[in-house]
């Protein structure tokens, strides 16, 4: 087997398998006052994981936070900013806050799974702007993938938001494994040639 057909076969295999990699999209979020727009001096901090499962059409939000100067009044995901990792956008998820999110506290945690096929998982204005629930789901995922969606925790001290963070994609381990296998096969073939 010659190198060019081997390389073509490897690249074809990788391109055909690419859609199978991505039914679940995971995003990490680091929350801080400095990430607010405009930034503030809140000592509060938090972390979150946002998982989109496109097979189930769900979004799971897991977050914990502490050290807020005020007490929580609302929390939601905003989308979509004009530029990646900068600016402000309207609320995309439920208003005035996530259902069951702990309010009136300066520290806490939250774990909830949203059904993205239900209009109740979104801000009605976001659904209308996107032309329907299916489009809202796709727009929210695209905003997250492009660095244009952020998680914001509001407090009575900072009504516009005390801490926030943009959703940052977590690379899928299987993608690296498949790419590594392809590169290893290519390297092996080059040694034999």
Automatic annotation (TrEMBL):
Domain of life of the native organism: Bacteria
Pfam families: CHRD (PF07452), PEP-CTERM (PF07589)
Signal peptide: 1-22
SMART domains: CHRD
Keywords in alphabetical order: Signal
CHRD domain segment(s): 23-172
Stored NCBIfam families: PEP_CTERM
Protein name: CHRD domain-containing protein
